[in-house]
Amino acid sequence: MKADRLLALYEKVAEAPDAIARLRRFVLDLAVRGKLIEQDPADEPASELLKRIAAEKARLMTAGEIRKPKPTEPIQPDDVPFELPRSWRWVRLSDILTKLTDGTHHSPPNGPEGDFLYITAKNIKDDGVKLDDVSYVSSKVHEEIYARCNPEPGDILYIKDGATTGIVTVNDLKEPFSMLSSVALLKLPPCIYNQLIVRFLRSPFFYEQMRSFMKGAAITRVTLKRMGPALLPLPPLAEQRRIVAKVEELMALLDRLEAARTAREATRDRLTAASLARLTAPETDQSGFEENARFTLDVLPALTTRPDQIKPLRQTILNLAVRGKLVAQDPTDEPASELLTRIHGNRIHKRKFAQLNSEELEIEPPSLPSGWLWTVVDQTAADDSRAITDGPFGSQLKTAHYIERPGFRVIRLQNIAAGQFRDEHRSYINESRFKELANHHVVPGNLVVAGLVDPNVRCCEVPDNIGPALVKADCYRFAVHPDLDHRFALHYLNSPLAQEFALTHHHGMTLTRIGLGNFRKLPFPLPPLAEQHRIVAKVDALMALCDRLEAALTTADTTSTRLLEALLHEALEPANDAMEAAE
Length: 583
Prior knowledge:
Layout: H1 3-8, H2 10-13, H3 19-32, H4 46-62, E1 89-92, E2 99-102, E3 116-119, E4 124-125, E5 128-129, E6 135-137, H5 139-146, E7 156-159, E8 168-170, E9 177-179, E10 183-187, H6 194-201, H7 204-213, H8 224-227, E11 231-234, H9 237-280, H10 286-303, H11 310-322, H12 336-344, E12 373-376, E13 388-390, E14 408-411, E15 416-417, E16 420-421, E17 428-429, H13 431-436, E18 441-442, E19 447-450, E20 458-461, E21 469-471, E22 475-478, H14 486-493, H15 496-503, E23 506-507, E24 513-514, H16 516-520, E25 523-526, H17 529-572, H18 578-582
Parallel strand pairs: 3-9, 14-21
Antiparallel strand pairs: 1-11, 2-10, 3-6, 4-5, 7-8, 7-10, 12-25, 13-22, 14-17, 15-16, 18-21, 19-20, 19-22, 23-24
């Protein structure tokens, strides 16, 4: 066994996303294969233990306490998945049990009061039977259930139905109780250490056997008929206790490592959040902002260690961009007020929302740099009356209108990510239907906006390569005025500032959405055109850096995961050359 090599290289694999969980399973895998501790030749072999188990079963049958068990299929050489130590034996689970049953298959009357506890899967936890949200049954109901399924202290309880199948514990309740059939009852003879069997039943080896047996469309379940013949290694009794002690020692170590990692990551997250928050603090002046920006850029590489930490960094970049804090202002730029007047001419006075009035908002908009202007989305749209429109509703476009072969593209909510078009979700309609819906067509360079704001409104650009397309219901086409930078609008609509405004303009009971009218009225911080171009160039450059950093962190995670897999495999199969391949 080369498990010591794994421990020596722990620091290199500790950052793998699921390192601790994998190591917990690895400890149990070593235990079940007889590779966790050394064997003692002085131990009574498992073959003798099997004789004592048989004698105990015979005694219980003679006393009328158990029925004669059904014979099990002999274990053939081809059934054995791996080699065991010489003093161990392969057994079927039912071979070492004096009873295997489950609770009632008919949910009895139960409630918050009664004579006896009524235990279901929700009460079974790794560390015992928990009485949170427990219910009770009457004495009559309990007697019927208990006559067949009689859990006693020290028995093993195994969840065999539903999402938590595989959770197993030792019954630590002193009082008798009734159970539902979602929990199996396993009784052992006193010559087997119940804690050892619990650890083995938690092992990946046993769980994979149960998983292959799971049946059911809505609720997956393991039947007793399948559990009984499952294979299980049986060590000598003395070794059973040493194995449990070693497992507990290593699990305690992993608990400490996990707690340390959690604390370390929490500290990093707090420091990162605090660093990013300093950049968007409303009271920060330009000199203070520059100082905070330098500090943040210095510390972020050390604090950013996971791919999921890149998202808040992207959001901060967008937040800075649309508040006028990402690039310097140029006093020679044409102010946004003159820009609007120039692109709309006299028509600006005919529009309902020519100038944003702060009293119309439910939240106070932040102050903007000199030369900027608070306006609304409607004022930034092209002059076309259909520049902002939603997709067809009702009978205009239904599921029945879609065709399987490539045709004319329908852009749906699934295609719209924040700043990115998702091309993997493809829907098409035929040419005649496409022409009927001309008011909803989009062209490359248009923006498409998801009307749903739960969790966030999101926006992307129509790409060049999808061909003729239209938007579906709950998606909005937004043709930005050609004299404005449409990518600045794209970045704004994906920014945290736009999310704040969108959340005050939504409606809906089950699906929270921003209506088309409210989208038109969404506040819009408009910079001078030259600054729009500078902001877009800066955002694109910083997002490219985020892409590279995220890719590097993802690669590091993948490398750590692969190294961990190689080390685990080598520890289980010493002759394997997986380590050399990984290195």
